[in-house]
Amino acid sequence: PVLFLSMAVAWAFLWDGVLSRVEGLLLLSGMFLLVAWIGAQGRNPDPGYSDPPPGAFDHDDIPDSLPTAKAIVLFSVGLILLLAGSRVLVWGAVGIARDLGVSELVVGLTLVALGTSLPELAASVAAARRGEQDIAVGNVVGSNMFNLLGVLALPGIIAPGEVDRAIIVRDFPIMVGVTLLLLLMAVNERNRIGRKRGIALILVFVVYFVTLFWNPSLPRLPG
After folding, report:
1. Would you state the pLDDT for residue 21?
2. What structural domains does the chain harbor?
3. Which of 53-67, 135-149, 155-169, 182-196 shows the lowest per-residue confidence on average (mean pLDDT)?
């Protein structure tokens, strides 16, 4: 429900085709409220929830004891590489858009989105292989909420302006529909996503991906 609420708020703010600084600040405030709410839920968990067994979150590639100074250096280097990689990713995406003759929006919805989702994909796959389905699903749901509230807020705050209306009338409804489909699948499978339904979700994305490149025509808002 919180994810659907986040989508509804973002959709309402974008409906007029403009993301203003005030709307960006409101979205960012919503993200902080979400973090506070999640923290409160963590301190008061559902009585039916049981903690994972000891060692469930152990990672063999992370040393047991890491000096603070070394941790800061690793964090700083990782952050710099992440920022540099993001810049290179955008440059490459724009170049691909020009070479293929498609809009930058289409490349952003596909190649850039796929590239920036790879760390989440790796984390979810690793969690699923260890039998930590809650982490795998929570990573996806949480990432979507933070993207809608936090990441979307920053362009509005830093550089408010117009938003391509195709996002509102085509891509946002598809996102809501796929999220609803995921929810229905999980409910019917007793809170689990089976392998066949997981493959079905991948096929939905592939169809969406191919359709955007094959026919990237953009519908317009009424009026």
Report:
1. 92
2. 2-44+70-214 (1.20.1420.30)
3. 53-67
Pick from 96, 113, 106: which is nearest to 170 by CA? 106
What the block records as the tokens of 12 is 């309402």
For 2-47, strand residue ranges (E) read 18-19
Instruction: Report the half-sphere exposure of 40 (CA within 13 A, side-chain side).
Output: 6
Give the single-character DSSP code of 61: T
Region for 51 from its dihedrals, namely left if φ exceeds 0, alpha if ψ lies in -120 to 50, beta otherwise: beta
Q: Is the pLDDT of residue 150 over 50?
A: yes
Torsional sign, CA 155, 159, 165, 166: negative
| Residue 34 neighbours by CB under 8 Å, 6+ apart | 2, 6, 145, 146, 149
Give me the sign of the Cα torsion angle 203, 140, 70, 61: negative
pLDDT grade, residue 59 (50/70/90)?
Answer: low
Q: Are strands 18-19 and 161-162 parallel, antiparallel or unpaired?
A: antiparallel
Answer whether 10's CB lies under 8 Å from 132's CB. Answer: no
Instruction: Read off the pLDDT of each residue in 179-208 and give the average, rounded to a whole number.
Output: 79
Q: pLDDT-derived band of residue 219, with 50, 70 and 90 as boundaries? A: very low
Distance CA 35, CA 31 (A): 6
How far apart CA 29 and CA 33 sit, in angstroms, is 6
CB 11 within 8 A of CB 148: no
